């Protein structure tokens, strides 16, 4: 990291000699640890805006993890002004990952967020299928709406109550929560349909109230 910082500052000095200061510095590296240390040192050594990047991060899965680790560490410390996610994947996937990282740090407006539990012995429904169907049914929704899809009666009610909209499933049925209150109990076969219907109602109300839109996000609660 020291060599990266030394080189960047030397190149910046060439511009400074000509009284040119309208620059942004980047010290990208393919190793997240080296990259993070380099940017920390650079931030301590100068006041120029910094462009963050883990270069040549690799395929989508590996590159997403590398980028999230590095950007999360730096941005949470207030280091970094712009970012570039570099994946061996279509550019649109790079943009999606970048937006998700910024949204996770509350640096960008959140959009639709699906909170769903992982697999465990308490789950009494197919949570994976339920979450996928709800996500597919709400694709394109842009208002900042948090939807909890929970598969048991242990963590389910708490998570569902804290979300804008949620379901706590078990014993072949699901309790539907809206803004912390149980509004109805439906058969398991009607959970997806009911959640989508209630989400649309909430979205319409939020749009009518002028709440800003964001990009869809998905997270898993465990």
UniProtKB/TrEMBL annotation:
<dbReference type="InterPro" id="IPR058579">
    <property type="entry name" value="IspG_C"/>
</dbReference>
<keyword id="KW-0004">4Fe-4S</keyword>
<keyword id="KW-0560">Oxidoreductase</keyword>
<feature type="domain" description="IspG TIM-barrel">
    <location>
        <begin position="1"/>
        <end position="98"/>
    </location>
</feature>
<dbReference type="GO" id="GO:0046429">
    <property type="term" value="F:4-hydroxy-3-methylbut-2-en-1-yl diphosphate synthase activity (ferredoxin)"/>
</dbReference>
<dbReference type="InterPro" id="IPR011005">
    <property type="entry name" value="Dihydropteroate_synth-like_sf"/>
</dbReference>
<dbReference type="GO" id="GO:0046872">
    <property type="term" value="F:metal ion binding"/>
</dbReference>
<dbReference type="GO" id="GO:0019288">
    <property type="term" value="P:isopentenyl diphosphate biosynthetic process, methylerythritol 4-phosphate pathway"/>
</dbReference>
<dbReference type="Pfam" id="PF26540">
    <property type="entry name" value="GcpE_C"/>
</dbReference>
<dbReference type="InterPro" id="IPR058578">
    <property type="entry name" value="IspG_TIM"/>
</dbReference>
<dbReference type="InterPro" id="IPR045854">
    <property type="entry name" value="NO2/SO3_Rdtase_4Fe4S_sf"/>
</dbReference>
<dbReference type="Pfam" id="PF04551">
    <property type="entry name" value="GcpE"/>
</dbReference>
<keyword id="KW-0408">Iron</keyword>
<protein>
    <submittedName>
        <fullName>4-hydroxy-3-methylbut-2-en-1-yl diphosphate synthase</fullName>
    </submittedName>
</protein>
<dbReference type="GO" id="GO:0016114">
    <property type="term" value="P:terpenoid biosynthetic process"/>
</dbReference>
<feature type="domain" description="IspG C-terminal">
    <location>
        <begin position="113"/>
        <end position="199"/>
    </location>
</feature>
<keyword id="KW-0414">Isoprene biosynthesis</keyword>
<keyword id="KW-0479">Metal-binding</keyword>
<dbReference type="InterPro" id="IPR004588">
    <property type="entry name" value="IspG_bac-typ"/>
</dbReference>
<dbReference type="GO" id="GO:0051539">
    <property type="term" value="F:4 iron, 4 sulfur cluster binding"/>
</dbReference>
<keyword id="KW-0411">Iron-sulfur</keyword>
